[in-house]
Design brief:
By secondary structure, the protein is an alpha+beta fold. 21% of the residues lie in helices and 36% in strands. It contains 8 helices and 20 strands. The strands form 4 sheets. The protein has a 6-stranded mixed sheet with strand order 7-8-9-3-10-11, sandwiched between helices. α4 runs parallel beside α5.
């Protein structure tokens, strides 16, 4: 099942003009605040009528302005998860979940309710009311309520934006399970590069109402030409396999045959992981350095150098582990003689990789 979107809309001084495909998995609309992410989601949901547009979900037309088709929200068969849970405060968790089941085209069997409760870890919360839940727990209930309505797609508009870092870390694994275990597409809005790196199957990068990049997460996030949230959020994503846990609190991963040492990562050996490495945390060296405290040294070849507007430059480095990005000054790039094809080493401090960058 996939979503096809083409929209054009103007309001105030803002003009939206986008077209993209969202396949199965989590498609993240990624960009700064004001880039048009929420406008797109509202148009897909039927909460906004665009001037021009067509939205089709697995061939079923939800909107076609040229043909005069605009299904109302309740007929689009979509689940919507907002920034806040929007739960009914007078109902228990069990009753809030049951409210979602009322909107399913046919009554959800008890086994489906049990599956959703297990997947989202809601068992201990079923008799509580929302006032006794944390922010992360409320969002898990909101996801469960949306799933139990048996939607054809889930829309999530910055569902972690109102949570602190601890609550975000709590709920991200549940979105990963949603991506991996539920066979419907999810359209997810975020301006957090770390969230995108962990969750996205597909990324649609937006800037000023336009699509500036789209495709698999590893390709888009590793493209130095795509910087929708600014250079400080630029980074690359590597696919790795958890090899072992060491007594000193470090976990060893393997990426393209190269070892990576990170602060302890949850999971057993063999687990597949994504690791986001921010460009500002990468140091470059022409020769393999020695006598450093940094534990991760990855050999590679310079692929491209993109000068910035100021004194900086963004270097793309091909390594056996995948493409890495490094933010350096143009002076450093010149002093090192960096150019496409030049051999180089990327140095990454173990402690620079936060738990939220691994998943």
């Amino acid at each position: 099942m996939s979503l096809s979107v083409a929209l054009a809309h103007r309001f105030g001084g803002f003009a939206l003009d986008v077209a993209f495909e969202a396949p199965a998995g989590i498609t993240v609309l990624f960009g700064r605040s004001g880039s048009g992410k929420s406008t797109i989601v509202d148009a897909v949901a039927g909460l906004l009528r665009p001037e021009l547009g067509r939205v089709a979900l697995d061939g079923r037309v939800l909107l076609d302005t040229a043909a005069g088709i605009a299904l109302p929200p309740h007929r689009r068969r979509l689940g919507y998860v907002f920034q806040d849970g929007r739960l009914f405060p007078h109902l228990t968790v069990r009753q809030n979940l049951g409210y979602g089941r009322r909107f399913a085209p046919r009554p959800a069997p008890a086994a489906e309710m049990a599956r959703v409760v297990e997947m989202l870890g809601l068992g201990p919360l079923l008799e509580r009311r929302p006032g006794r839940l944390s922010g992360g727990e409320k969002q898990r209930v909101a996801i469960g309520r949306a799933l139990l309505a048996s939607p054809d797609m889930i829309l999530a508009d910055e569902p972690l934006a109102a949570l602190d870092e601890a609550r975000k870390a709590e709920i991200l694994p549940y979105f990963e399970r949603l991506r991996d275990e539920v066979a419907i597409p999810v359209l997810y809005v975020s301006h957090s590069a770390a969230e995108v790196a962990r969750l996205a199957t597909t990324v649609v990068a937006l800037s000023d109402g336009r699509v500036v990049g789209q495709g698999p997460a590893l390709e888009v996030l590793g493209d130095p030409m795509v910087t929708p949230t600014g250079v400080r959020d630029v980074g690359a994503v590597l696919e790795a396999r958890l090899v072992a846990h060491h007594p000193d609190g470090l976990s060893e991963l393997e990426a393209g045959g190269l070892p990576l040492l990170l602060p302890r990562v949850a999971g057993a050996a063999g687990r597949r992981l994504r690791v986001r490495i921010a460009a500002q945390d990468v140091i470059l060296s022409r020769a393999r350095p020695e006598g450093l405290s940094a534990l991760n040294i990855l050999p590679g070849t310079v692929d491209a150098i993109r000068p910035g507007d100021g004194p900086g430059a963004l270097v793309s480095l091909r390594t056996p582990a995948g493409t890495l990005l490094a933010r350096v000054t143009r002076r450093s790039a010149q002093a090192l003689g960096l150019a496409p094809g030049v051999a180089c080493h990327a140095v990454v401090k173990t402690v620079a990789i936060a738990p939220g960058d691994v998943g």
